[in-house]
Design brief:
The chain has one helix at 2-5, and strands at 15-16, 26-30, 42-48, 54-59, 65-70, 76-79, 88-94, 100-105, 111-116, 122-125, 137-143, 149-154, 160-165, 171-174, 186-192, 198-203, 209-214, 220-223, 230-236, 242-247, 253-258, 264-267, 275-281, 287-292, 298-303, 309-312, 322-323, 331-332, 338-343, 349-355. It is mostly beta strands and 356 residues long. The chain has one domain (16-355): YVTN repeat-like/Quinoprotein amine dehydrogenase (Methylamine Dehydrogenase, Chain H, 7 Propeller), CATH 2.130.10.10. A hairpin with a 5-residue loop joins strand 5 (65-70) and strand 6 (76-79).
Length: 356
């Protein structure tokens, strides 16, 4: 399940060849000033808020990972989770007040959550029951305007559980009713909206994926795209509209939009792609994500509310192309600006900002 929900800052999941952007589009590459320039190093943008402030991580010349904040005027602030032995700090969510959440990795490769205030104070946290062995622990992915955080943790048996953390620090764990309790099964919460409604996916005892939506009061409703063999929800906006992806009976993956009332719309990237996935959705219902053609080439896209899909890619992808990551490492704000990262021909990471 983690391969769907987490992604990784240390290795790319998908690579893409360059797409041709229209003259109305602007794609800017960016680097944290402290980022390394060797293979496996560089800058990884993950999400963007309404003010155009971006968070993410960078890997320095010593192969240590640090969190960063990039203002709309391209001013960088680096940060690390407190304590000794921290090998990676990564911002994964940022709200309109520039409060950041994310995770850090300790020297034993255990994940822990954190929240960073606008003034730079960092508070770390772990839900009760979070595992303490390699690859286990706490992974927050979203923070709303009230400062409420959603994410998931992995316990000592390798089972995933969703959690929600209030701005006061109270943590509530939850599991989708149909979630399995085996290794790599369970519930993974992704995005929380301004009303406190959370979406995500769970893996059942038969290792099948299903989407879910959890109300602010804690009621969980699961869902599947009709006739899908697996359904994964990745993001929700203020109106309760959800995006994600599903696989049909032929194993072909398609993006979807699900309204608050439960009505589905399927969509695909141009030219009959083999895979399409929605990864983030803004307040207007504009979606960003990726699609892969039959040749294995992956492109980023923006889907307008009328269903029009526009392709894009970051410049400088080199022979390996543009990295368009899975997990929640791709963000879109109210203006439709998109951030993410790509991998160049020397396997160095670079952040990008796409402005439609």
């Amino acid at each position: 399940m983690k391969e769907i929900f987490k992604g990784t800052f240390l290795a790319g999941l998908l690579v893409a060849a360059a797409a041709i952007a229209s003259s109305a589009q602007t794609i800017t590459s960016f680097e944290d000033p402290n980022a390394g320039t060797a293979s496996g190093q560089g800058t990884l943008g993950t999400t963007i808020n309404t003010a155009g402030t971006i968070t993410g991580a960078y890997i320095d010349s010593n192969n240590l990972g640090h969190g960063f904040i990039r203002s709309s005027k391209a001013k960088y602030t680096s940060f690390d989770a407190p304590g000794s032995g921290v090998v990676l700090t990564a911002g994964t969510g940022i709200n309109s007040g520039s409060v950041v959440t994310g995770f850090y990795l300790d020297s034993a490769a255990v994940f822990h959550g954190f929240v960073r205030s606008k003034t730079g104070a960092i508070t770390t946290f772990d839900p009760t029951g979070a595992g303490t062995n390699r690859g286990e622990g706490t992974e927050p992915y979203s923070i709303n305007t009230a400062g409420t955080i959603s994410g998931f943790y992995t316990d000592s048996s390798g089972v995933l559980h969703g959690f929600v953390r209030s701005s006061s620090g109270a943590i509530t764990s939850f599991d989708a009713p149909g979630a399995g309790n085996g290794n790599h099964q369970g519930t993974a919460a992704s995005v929380i909206n301004t009303s406190g409604v959370i979406t995500g996916a769970y893996r059942d005892a038969q290792n099948k994926y299903h989407g879910f939506v959890r109300s602010a009061a804690g009621k969980i409703t699961d869902f599947d795209y009709p006739s899908a063999t697996r359904t994964v929800a990745t993001a929700i906006n203020a109106a309760g509209t959800i995006t994600g992806w599903y696989a049909d009976t032929n194993g072909v993956e398609h993006g979807f939009v699900r309204t608050k009332q439960g009505a589905f719309t399927s969509f695909d990237g141009p030219n009959n792609p083999h895979q399409t996935a929605g990864w983030a959705i803004n307040t207007a219902g504009v979606i960003t994500g990726l699609y892969q053609n039959s040749a294995g080439v992956v492109f980023g896209f923006v889907r307008a509310t009328d269903g029009t899909i526009t392709s894009f890619s970051a410049p400088g992808g080199g022979t390996l192309g543009t990295l368009v990551p899975g997990g929640f490492e791709m963000g879109i704000n109210a203006a439709g600006d998109v951030t993410g990262y790509y991998l160049d021909s020397s396997s160095v990471y670079h952040g990008y900002l796409y402005v439609p």
